[in-house]
Amino acid sequence: MLLTAGHDGPVRALAAAVGAWADQEGADLRTVRADDDPVGGIVAAMDAGPDLVVAVGADLVDPLALVSASHLDRQFLLLGAELPEPTGNVTAVDWTGASFRGDGLRAASPFDAASFTPRRAGAAIRAGVTAVLTGMTGVVLWID
Length: 144
Known about the structure:
This protein is 35% helix and 15% strand. The protein has four helices and six strands, in the order βαβαβαββαβ. It has helices at 9-25, 38-47, 61-68, 118-133; strands at residues 2-4, 31-33, 53-56, 76-79, 90-94, 140-142.
């Protein structure tokens, strides 16, 4: 399940990379847009019963922190951002220019929309899915 919020360049780059990855792997990918109601979007994504919810968009960080801790049986992958206090069911992939941690919190590096390249977005989804499939969850992966 791809869960998105926002329409900016980083969200579009990450969503396109997730779609390309799913096509290449033959994965059944469905999308939930959570622009107007992030918490409701997260719940709708979970209710669909996917193996993994891949979240893209800084607007999902705080709502995901709120919801994911109460649903430890669900696996989440957050690309280009991270939760301030991740739990074992939320894996994140970041890089220099992408490490948003929620409103009012300091990030590991300054935000740079240009860092959300197709190559980096593709590497993020591959690294994140690999981590989840191998049981390395609840961590922040840092890629170049």
